[in-house]
Design a protein that fits this description.
Strand order of the largest sheet: 1-28-27-26
Distance between the termini: 77 Å
Oligomer: single chain
Number of helices: 26
Largest sheet: 4 strands, antiparallel
Number of strands: 34
Radius of gyration: 33 Å
Strand content: 15-25%
Length: about 800
Amino acid sequence: MNDIHCLSNFIDYSPSIHEPLKHSNRIKYTCFDISENYIIFGATSGSLYLFNRRVCKFLHLIPNKHGSVTHLEISSGEKYVAFSTKKGTICVYVINLSANSAPQVIYAALGPEVQVTCIHWTLDEKQFYYGDNRGQVNLVVLNSFIGRSLLSLSVHPILFLEQPVVQIDDFESLLLVSNWSKCILCNTEFEEYKQIGNRLRDGPFGACFAMSTNESLTPSRIYCARPGSRLWEVDFEGEVLQTHQFKAALACPPSKIQKTTECETEAMFKYSDENSELLDFQPQTLTFTKLQMLSQDFLLTYTELGLYIFDVRTSTVVLWCNQFERIADCRVFGPDGEIVIFTQTGSMYSVSLLTLQSHAMSLVRSEKLLECSFLLKKNLKYFADKAREDYDLIILNHIKNFLIDQQQYELLNDLSVIFDSIAQNEGDTSSGSSAERKSANSGGVSQRPFEAVDQRAQGVYVLENSFCDNLRVKEKDRHFKDALLTVTGKFGKNIIKYKFNIFNDEQKSLVSDLIPRNERTLPFQHVKDNTDDDVVCRRKLPPSPPKGRHITDEEKIVYNLLLISRSSQISNTNFLERYRHLFDEYTSREIIGILAKLEAVMLEHGDTELQAKQNCYEMYFNYLNPELIWEVDDISKEFIIQGFIVLNANQDAVRCDNCGFPIRFDNSCLFHELGAVLMRYLWSRNEHGRCFEILKDVPALFDVLAKFYMAEGQVEKIIPIVMNYGQPDLLEEAGRGFNLHAWDRCFDKFVALQQGRLSCINCERITLVENVNRHFFYTWNCFLNISSEFLEAKEILALVYKYSNNIPNDAIDREFFTKCMLK
């Protein structure tokens, strides 16, 4: 049957967002946008008000002197906010919540007669489009330099239309522009433009892309609004495929928002039903100004008086709602399709689209049983039909028990048809044992001690005993049972059945309650391979040993380590305590042998050679005390060095043109402490060449080399390391030993770095590198603030003056000069 939907999870953000304006009656919000972490409002004062989305807490005020904000949009990665003002400017704010840096807003003046009508960012955040009241579409490119600390805008007109632009959308190289008279589909790669359809229109009509995740089932399309509550469905060649007409379908009652903050009464529902029967709803002729996809199935639009949600696959109205006054804008946000509404009064609300079934189940889980009872009564046929189809609705039996306890016999009688349907479905359900149905009747909570937690949708079964404190086994026995932590796919108990015969008697006693006695020797090759569709991931299981062959203790350890490794990959935890005691019983050479066998089993289990090596090395390094490097034998030491390189080899580093040594690289590092001990050991033995071999593959250890040079007083060798490593803490530590001459050299190297000329640490040759903008350290402000800690004011100002020709305008904040004057 077709689902019925409702608007639920109502949130009123208005009290929180108006908190910063409570002392001013003059300032009003004019527009907004929402992202994963932020809500940002534009105001009549020209300022932007930035809030934390998750708790709706005010964070930051961004002042702006270019006039009242008219439109704004946050970039996809939340680095920038583009906004326009009434004075005819397009601006970009760089989102930076640091208390030490002033808000950076860059702008381009368009002219007072130009009013921006819409803004749209591209996914890469390097550019955005805007349309204006003249019908012109422009591309704004962000040009960054000095580590993105400074930006500039360049505006490029790309399309000239005769009517104001209403909405802009893009997908890869396709750009969709909708204005008051038509829709234009542009291929920006080949600079081709095509008008969609031949019939013009007159009004603010929107258009959008509707991307599908299953092209064979629902192909991706373009939807364009048309007069008279119609939509064009268009393919990516710009051809109109069909027209969806919603005028007559909108002659239906509006949906009420399901607010569960207050207890609904039977009288309220009865009054609502009587009113709906008395009213005669007429067809609606509407202008859809902005179109947005709500999930991949529905399309959302709005007018000043209401929200409208359509199923474009069937040309039906999902629902419409008129409970928001004077809607100014609307956003669909997040994977769950949260709908955020902003009104002309500056208020903001949020709702979610749910099926009635989902809403009813959420009410039961929230113990709002009376509200759910009246919802069922209002939609008797829907829930009765659903209860015959869906076993999950057995959860509604909680309402039955509640009504009996509350002696609500009349309401219970009204809902009896639903409970009869549930009972009928329960009786007809052949899948699942009676114990499982009993568990479902008790709220879906299993009473069995080793039931899997609810991760079945991902095809992953985790034994609850591994995480539940009150079911945890004794400390000395924990590791055997926990070795069975994770089993993928539908093999949950089958793999344990297979492994039962490899455990010793003590171990068998720990898992005997998992496997019936008659199944404990079940050969693995006889286990049925369950290929249900809901199995998301399945790995190749360890091969069965020849029948009758004795399983050695070492093989048992390898199998245990394999399962622990799989557990750590799924839960992102190393589970060191589960295998530490195993490694404690062996020498380092013996552990290396065990890891070699584990790597072989991982290869059989579906891992690539690199993945297997990395998994084994990570297990060992999590266990290894770095200071033991000084005591292990040379073979073990070489094994550790090779493993460290495998885990941290930087393939993407920019290298010296002369010797191939890394000069620009990512300085993140796994097991950095272990690498530092390795370097100290080799350096102490004067194996400097070996150290540089490691550094060539793992440049993230350059900070360790810099500390060696600090101890030896080799300042000239420290400076290029500090510049290339890009870590302020390292410069601050090294700077304590620099004299004025050394700081002069630092300034010289820093200017060269800004110009893309990097010195090789190995051969000292210069290599030209483009776009040196990876670290926040590469700004003049950061560099000067650190150097000012170790230089007198006159000395640092003299150096600034010396290199002033190489310092861009506005690269240094006035706070720096104030600090120097006070100093």
